[in-house]
Amino acid sequence: MDLSNNKTDFSNLLSSIDVNVLVERITQQNSDLAKTSTKSECSDSNKCLKEWKRQWQKLSSINLEYGRQAVEATDSERAATDWLISLFNTLFSEQQVVLVRSNSEPEYFPIQGNQPARIEFAHGFFASALHEISHWCVAGEARRRLPDFGYWYAPDGRTAAQQQAFERVEIKPQALECLFTLACGRHFQVSQDNLFADFDTSESAFANDVYQQVETYLENPKILPRDAKTLLSTLLRACKDK
Hints:
The chain has helices spanning 19-28, 31-39, 45-66, 70-91, 126-138, 160-183, 206-219, 226-239, and strands spanning 97-101, 107-109, 117-121. By secondary structure, the chain is mainly alpha-helical.
């Protein structure tokens, strides 16, 4: 396995795992999972799951047929994000949070008055939605009360020290994003988010750190954040054929 940042193959992480066994391990180790599902807007969780699965299978067939054609691919991406928005907002309706498509950069807005918290993902991209959801899953109750979870953000062109700090904070969110992405049958690649760095980033261990964190989560699902268990279990059951 090549663990350099641009060549790390994350696709094998779920390839040898029985999805049903993984779902069982997640749900057995999370007593809150059943409570969360029954408190969502979906009064019949099995019925909702069947509908999400049906919709995802339809989306997957569209991707296979039109994936190489730009217009249809764009339409398919929007349909996939619509599906994810509906699933997330139903699954976590009791937590007063909504997933929202943004035309600009991603941002998190905490609950204000009667308005729910908003997870806004960038430019309608499915991958961005999973990434921002991952940050929400990692953030505890205190950070969820803060704009952008209280994290600092330095734009592209960070110094070496800033990049190291960025990567430390991103390991767990990107590990969760990897799991969510693979559960949806999509390709995952880490993001160092520093294309215009004026220093050599090739020696970074970031991809390796993310890979190892994903392995740790798979070996010991009980350490996954509560909401990550809920979402990962749902995605695995809705998107995987096994």
